[in-house]
Every structure is written in structure tokens, then in C-alpha cells.
Amino acid sequence: MARSARTAPSTATPSPNHGAGETGTGGLRERKKRATRQALQQAAVRLFRDHGTGAVTVDDICAHADVSPRTFFNYFTSKEEVLVPWDRETIDNTAARVLGRPPEEEPLEAAEAVLGEAIETAMNGPTWRDQAVVLRHHPELIEKVVTAFRALEAALVEGFAQRLGRASEDVYVRLLAATAITTLRVSVQSWQDSEAGESMRHYLAENFERLRRGLRPDELG
Amino acid sequence: MARSARTAPSTATPSPNHGAGETGTGGLRERKKRATRQALQQAAVRLFRDHGTGAVTVDDICAHADVSPRTFFNYFTSKEEVLVPWDRETIDNTAARVLGRPPEEEPLEAAEAVLGEAIETAMNGPTWRDQAVVLRHHPELIEKVVTAFRALEAALVEGFAQRLGRASEDVYVRLLAATAITTLRVSVQSWQDSEAGESMRHYLAENFERLRRGLRPDELG
DNA sequence: CATTTTTATGCAGAGACTGCAAAAATGCAT
DNA sequence: ATGCATTTTTGCAGTCTCTGCATAAAAATG
């Protein structure tokens, strides 16, 4: 008798690939949930890519995924959420990963490492390529996706607050987490615009280095 | 025969206070537009503050502002946009202000100065106090407002690209602008949480100083 | 196979937002 | 003042997102 919704799946985001690609884990139920979620995501991303985003309705997505329109909202809280490249699992792990970094690491280095892992996990997802295309063709959508970044930011705050022995409301902790997430966003954006000439990690490393140097100009490219 | 909307006001955001508080500038039309906009904003912010945001409909707002519901969307593109503390005028000026800063200033200093001006202008607006209350009681709304920050960010990118003689797509320029905006957001948030114990500029200065120091811990409070 | 728990679905409805065209208000020149 | 042009307001119809609720379908369990 949990106080949560009676209708929604108990775990809207089954872990598709936490440690490795454990595709066939869990019972039938879990497998079907993963399948449904992925079907919705793939249908949505493909439709977005082909027809633009405004032109695609939730009903369209569900039709292509062979799922009831009502069910869509059991998996995603909004139409655009299908574009979020990570799930609750990843986010929940983030705080722990921050704690797990070597103690001698500077905060920015730890942040870079953790976010680097997160984004690489996302890039290994089955829909990343199309997602990237969609976001490149429809930059307005980045706004919507950024909301999801906020959840990651909160996780970072949690992790660094503990790691540094400070409160979650600590200004430095907040600034650190927010800046790190912003750096991730800028890196992803630049990487996308550059037609994948350099690796994602390259941009990430370069930008974190800029942060370490106090954002002074002309130090790097 | 401009190709723009036939229905919307030509200038949805008349400049309420560009240089000084020029309340009575322009013809009757301009004055009425300002009045309508402000009426909507005040009604909305007050209702949000008293009843929460989800409980207030656009129709409610319009009823209190004595304006047709349809008209609301001539002034704001979404229900939450009434909470944005600056108008198009401010944003358009931003790029120019970046160019206007003394040439010897470091980028971060210029950014701090420009954003400091922007936020102070916003704080002088008639609805700032209530807006702050609303955002404190309903942190979810910060998400929606952040979208507006993105417009400021774009303006910063423009300004710094020119100031530094780089392209708008330059990675450093992007990172600089994005980080500056993020710092503004964190500063505002911390300032709000602290029940106005310190001045806004204090938080802003402190956080920009942290950036200059490469976000190393323990350097400041 | 009966029971319990979880998920999928259908239905109705609230509410945000848009396009369109008529009406009202304002600006302007005579 | 009066007539004409421009801009803003409004009403209306309609689309679409998203939610609550009740029920059917599915699957885990014993």
C-alpha cells in the first residue's frame, strides 16, 4: 500500500545497462517493460527526426509503437521526455559515483570523471544517434532536455555535499554542480555541431580545463 | 506587409524602464500596452503566490486583470512566462553592454558587470518581490524561468563573440556565456534562500570570484 | 488453478495554446 | 470633427498534452 500512483509501473525506468548490457535480466514483466519503453523511444525519436517535433503527436508515437496513448504517460511524464538520454538509474548512481572517486581528486576532476561516464553511457544507448540528429535539427528541444540535466545536477549536489562535508545548500557546492552540468551541456552542444570531428571526451576535457584556468581567454583553442 | 503575425502587438514588450523610469513615454497605445502587460503580470504573480501555480489557470489570471483570455497569449507565449523578470529590451541591450565594457576588463569581469546590471534592473521591477516569493515557494518554476535565461545567454554569446573577435560558435565563448548565466542563476537562488541576508551583488561577486579561482574548494566561505 | 500484484487500456475532462475573422481602439491626415 | 489606416482586443472553434478513475489483461505466486 505504497502512497504512490496506483497506475504507473513500479519502476518506470528499468535499468537497461547499469554495469554491462544486461538485456535479458529479470522476469517477463521487466523485459516487457523495457521493450515497451524502448519501442516508445525509438518510435518517437524516429518520428521527431523525420517530421520535426511539433508535427508529431503522442498519438502518432503510440500508434507506431503499438501502445495505448494512455500508456505513454506511464513511462514518460511529458512528450519530450523521450529524448532524455539517461534514466533514473543513472541519476541515482551519480551521487554514489562522486563519493567513489579517489579522495585526492579535485572537485572539478571528480565531476569531469563522473559526467564523462554518464555521457558515455548515454551515447551507448540504442537511440543516441537519432537523438543527436533530432537535437541538432531542432535546437529548441535542448531546452526541454535541459530539465533532465537538472536532475543530474541535484545528484551532483548531493554527492559533493557529502564528499566535501558541506550542506546541500552550500553555495560553493551549488556553483560547482551547476557549472559542471553547464559544462557538460556546452560540450555536448559543441560536439554535436562539429559533426563528430573530435571525441566527446575531448570537448569535455578541454572545457573542464578552461574552468580550472578560471575561464581566462586564449589559454586554449 | 510584414510577414509577422497579424494579431500580436507589434512590440509585446515595451521598454518599461530602459535608462530611467520613463513610465509615461509614448502614445496612448504604448501606455495601454504597458498597463495591460503589467496588469497581467501582477494578477498572475499574486495568484501564483497565494494559491500555488498549478491551481491558477490563465482564465483566472485574465479575469483578475480584466483582459480577455485570448489576449494573454498576445503578451506571453506561455503561462509561466509572466514570471520572467526581464523583457526583450533588456536582452537586446545585453550584447551592446558587453561591447561597452572597458577593453582591459577580463571576460568574467565584464560578464559580472553586465549581469549585475541586468539583475538589478529586474529587481527594481514592480513585481520582483512577489516573483521572488513565488519562486521560493515553488522551486519547480525555476525550470520554466530558466528558459528565459537562455535568451540572455545567447545575447552574451553575441556580445563576447564580437568583443573577443571570435565566432558565435566558438567553444570558449559558449562556455563563458553559459557559465556566466549559470552563475547568475546560482547566485539568485542562494540569495533567495538566504532570506536576503546579503545583497544580491555580494553573492554574484563571490561566485564570480570562485570561477576566477578555478572552482577550487575552501578558497571562499 | 485461484489469488494477488502490477501493468495496460479506455474514457472523460481540464486546461494550455493557436488560427481566424470580426470588432474595437488608436493614430493620423484632412 | 470626420474618414481612413493601423494596431490591438476579443470570441470561437479546434487541437493537443496530460490526469484521474475504473476496468480489463497480464504475470508472478502458491
Characterization of this structure:
The structure is a homodimer of 221-residue chains. With 221 residues, chain A is mainly α. Chain A folds into two domains: 28-77, Arc Repressor Mutant, subunit A; 88-212, Tetracycline Repressor, domain 2, CATH 1.10.357. The first copy, chain A, has nine helices and no strands. In chain A, helix 1 (28-51) crosses helix 2, helix 5 packs across helix 8 (171-193) and helix 5 packs antiparallel against helix 9. Chain A binds a DNA duplex (30 and 30 nucleotides) through residues 5-10, 27-29, 32-33, 36, 57-59, 67-74, 77-79.
How is this structure best summarized?
Two copies of one chain form a homodimer. Chain A has helices at 28-51, 58-65, 69-75, 88-100, 107-123, 128-137, 140-164, 171-193, 200-212. By secondary structure, chain A is mainly alpha-helical.
